[in-house]
Design brief:
The chain has helices at 37-44, 52-65, 106-121, 136-144, and strands at 11-13, 18-22, 67-75, 78-87, 94-96, 125-132, 148-152, 156-162. By secondary structure, the chain is an alpha+beta fold. It has one domain: Gcn5-related N-acetyltransferase (GNAT) (Aminopeptidase, 3-Layer(aba) Sandwich), CATH 3.40.630.30. The strands form two sheets. A five-stranded antiparallel β-sheet has the order 1-2-3-4-5. It has a three-stranded antiparallel β-sheet with strand order 6-8-7, with helices on one face. It is globular and about 35 Å long. The chain starts with 10 loop residues before the first strand and ends with a strand.
Amino acid sequence: MPIQGIEQPELIQVDETLRLRKYDGKDSFALAWYQDEETLMLVDGLYQPYDMARLKKMYTYLNEHGELYFIERKEGETYLPIGDVTFWQEDMPIVIGEKDLRGQKIGRRVVGALIERARELGFPKLEVDMIYHYNLGSQRMFESMGFQPYEENEKGKRYRLVL
């Protein structure tokens, strides 16, 4: 129970082709996402490739602080993992690990489903901790979902959505 007093669902169906699957500790397929230079610059702001120990440490942290999900896309009759997202009031880190799927509004659809979950749970707001200034795609996506910048520093902006 990552969010105190709230049971995390095994699956959240985003739409007919996307779903969120609760983190189950089986994550080795995601290592490639966190070894990619472009992905790491968007996520961490520096290129320092992950190894399995660092990947596990990150997922353990995220799973202890919020609801950690793999984003899965339906291909034929099978759902395949394409990224990850963590949901809690203070942050919503999202990564589309499969680079060729970026820019297809997958993040927007996932965030929309999580905004709906936040409303159902009675959350007063959602925040995104930091989006780097050069990560224009993430900035546009969160702003299109109604998030507004509320703090800025030399690295980037923090966003908030009042529900």
